[in-house]
Task: structure prediction
Amino acid sequence: MICSRRTQVSRKVRALPGAPGMLEAGRNRLFLEIMRQERHATLLDVARYAGVGTTTVSRVINGSVGVSPKTLAAVRQAIKDLGFAPNPVARMLKGEQTKTIGLIIPNLADSYFSSIAEEIQKVACSFGSMVIVTVTHNEVEREWVSVNELARRTDGLLLAPASSMNPKLVERLSWAPIPVVCFDRPLFHSNTSRVLTANYQDAKAATKHLLSHGRERILCLGGEASFHTVHERLRGYLAAMEQAGRGPLVDVSEHKRGAGEAAKVLKKHFRGKEPPDAIFCLKNSVTIDCYDFLQRFGIAVPMEVALVGFDDFRLAAMLRPSVTVVRQPVEEIGRTAAEMLFKRLGEINDAVRAGERAAPRAGELVRLKNELIVRASCGCEEVPVQRLGSLRR
Amino acid sequence: MICSRRTQVSRKVRALPGAPGMLEAGRNRLFLEIMRQERHATLLDVARYAGVGTTTVSRVINGSVGVSPKTLAAVRQAIKDLGFAPNPVARMLKGEQTKTIGLIIPNLADSYFSSIAEEIQKVACSFGSMVIVTVTHNEVEREWVSVNELARRTDGLLLAPASSMNPKLVERLSWAPIPVVCFDRPLFHSNTSRVLTANYQDAKAATKHLLSHGRERILCLGGEASFHTVHERLRGYLAAMEQAGRGPLVDVSEHKRGAGEAAKVLKKHFRGKEPPDAIFCLKNSVTIDCYDFLQRFGIAVPMEVALVGFDDFRLAAMLRPSVTVVRQPVEEIGRTAAEMLFKRLGEINDAVRAGERAAPRAGELVRLKNELIVRASCGCEEVPVQRLGSLRR
DNA sequence: CTGTTAGCGCATTCAT
DNA sequence: ATGAATGCGCTAACAG
Result:
C-alpha cells in the first residue's frame, strides 16, 4: 500500500482527455504508467480507457447486470489491458463487506488450535474471505485489544475466549455490529453462538472406563482450572467417581510450561503411602508431561498405573504403550464454527440489501461429540506386532 | 463493518450545530447515538464534540504535536467520552500503512509452519501489525491468488513458496510495490530476501553420523523431491555417501498422506536381498510413517535398522527408541523472517516520509544453522531410566 | 442502459 | 496553534 509517486502520477492521469474514444496518445501514456507498475489502475482509469463512466465499470465488476454487450466487452477489455483489480480497501470504506474474518485463539503453536485454524481457513477461503489471526496466550488484555482492532476491519469474529467470564467483553461484543462465534470455550452471559464439545460427559465416560478396569485411586491431573473446558472435564471426573463410590483424587495446581511442574506434582503423589493406580489428564500437554514422567521413572503403564488423557495428539498411537485418549473432533469444531459465522454473515448481508438491520438472533449452541480412543495405556490390550514372515523370507 | 443505519444517523449528526461550545442538547444527542452503538464515533464527531476542527483531532491522535495543552485536554476528553478509535480502513485508503502483513504458507495444521506462524504473529504484534494467513497446500494456483489478494491490503508478505521455480510469481512480485520475504524455501531468480536453513550441509552431517555408526546401506527416504528443501537434503545425503565411497540408496517416490505409501515403499526395500541397515528420512511426516512401519513390523531400531529424520517433532524424545533428528530452528526462522520484513518496511516508511521512493534493495539471504539432536534411533545410547528408589520408599 | 455526483473516515496541504 | 478544503478508490442514489 506504500507508493510514494502515486499522488503525482495520478494527477497527471486525471488531466488526460477523458472523452469517449480517447486519443491514442493519451491511451498509451496511461497504459505505460500502469504497466510500469508506478501505480495500480483504478476504476476511473478503466472508465477513461474504455470511454465509459465509472458506474458502468463498477457494474461490470459486480455482476454485469444491465450493461449492453458492447460496453461490457469494451470494459472487460479495458480491465484486462490495464490489469485492473478493485481495491478492497476502498470497498471496505464504503461499508461493504471486508471479506475478512478475525480468528482469535490462545496459541498458534498448539496443534489443537492450529488444526482448527486450518479448517477455518479453508471454509473462509471457500466463502472468498481472508482470515486475520491473532493470538492471546490466554491473556484477557491481549484478547481485548484483538477484539477491538478486528472489530473495525472484519465482517465477523471467531473466538476462543481467554476467559469464559468476562462481562466487559460481553458488553463490548453486544455493542459491536459484527457477529461472533465462540468455540472450544463459551462466553457466559453473551448471546454469541458457541461450538463446544461434551467435555463433562466424555470426561465422565473416560473416568468410568478407568473404573471399569478396576482402578480405584484415579488421580485427576489438571491444566489450569480457570478454563471452562478443564472445569467441565473435572466435573465429569468427579461425577464418575462419586457415582462409583470412590473418593476423588484431584490435583489441578498450575501446570505451566515444561515438564518440571508436572513431575513435581506427580512425585508428591507417588511418594504418598497410597499412590494412584490410574491417572486421568485433563489436557493434552499434561498427558504428555505425565507420560514422560512415568516413562522416566520406570513406572509401568498400564500395569502399575493406567493412563487416559483428554485430547488426542499426534503419535499417541505410536508410543509404547500407546495412549488412550478422549479425542475432540478438531476439524469439525473449526469447520462448524466457521460455517455458523458465514451463515450469519449471509443473513446479515441479505437483510442489509433487502430492508434494514438484520434481526438480532440469539446465539445457537452446538455441542459436538468426542470419542474415546481406546489404546493400551488404560489397560486394554496393545495391538500386536505384525507378522515378520511376510517381510523376511 | 456492516451497519445499515449508519448513513441515516450520520446525516443527522452532521446537521448538528458545529460551533465551538456546542449546545448541551446536541452534545447529548450525539453522545447517545454513539453510546447506543448505532455507529462508531468518527473524527468529525470528536471534533464537533470538542468544539475544534478535524485537523486538530487528527493531530492529537498522531503525536499531539503543535496543539495547545488546553485543546489537547478537551480533545482527549472527547475521544474518551465518545470511545473514539480511528478507523483503520480509512487510514489504509489514504495510502498509509495498512498495519497488516500477509503470511502465505502451505499448511497451518503442520506444526512446523504453525510454529513459524506463531513467532511471526508475535513479531508482527510487537510492531503493531496484524497478520492475514492464507494457505496454499503447495498449489501454485492458490498461492497466486493469495499473493494478488494480499498485495492490495498488506504492507508486506511473508511467503513459503509453493514452488521455488515460478517465473510468473517472480515477475508479479517485482511488480508489486510491497516487500516480500521468503522462508523455508527460496524463490529463484527473484530479489526477495530469504531465510533458509543449511539443508544440504546438515543432511550431509546426519548421513555422516549414520556412516560413523558403521552403517553401510543407508536408505534415503524422501518427501516430494520437487521441493527445494527436500532436494537440498537429498544432495547432502548423496554427497556424504559418495564421500564415504558408498552407493546411494534413494527412494523419493511420492509420499502423500497416510502411512500406506511409506509402508509400501519400505516393504519393497526390506524384501530385497540386501535390506537397508539405516534410514535417513528427508521429512518429518516420512520419519513418523517410517517409525510406525518399523515398529509395526517389529524391526529393531537401532539394532537392525538405524533411523535419523529431518525435522524434529514433538515426542521424538519420548518414543522408545527416541528418534535422532536434524532440528530446524523453527522459532528463529519465523522471527528472523518477520524481523527482516519489518526492517524493510521501516526503511520504506522512512523513505516515503522523507524524500521519495525507497531505493530498491537486493534481497538478503540468511541461512540458519540446524542442529543434529542425537537420541537413540541412530545407535547412540538411550538415556537410562531414572532411579526408582527416590520414589518408592 | 448509462453518466454525474456525493460521500465512506481520515490525513494533509495551505491558509489563517 | 488551528481549520477548511481536498482526495484516496469505490459504490449507489439519482438523474438523463
Observations:
- Residues 330-353 of chain A form the longest helix (24 residues).
- The mean pLDDT of chain A is 86.
- Chain A is about 45% helix and 15% strand.
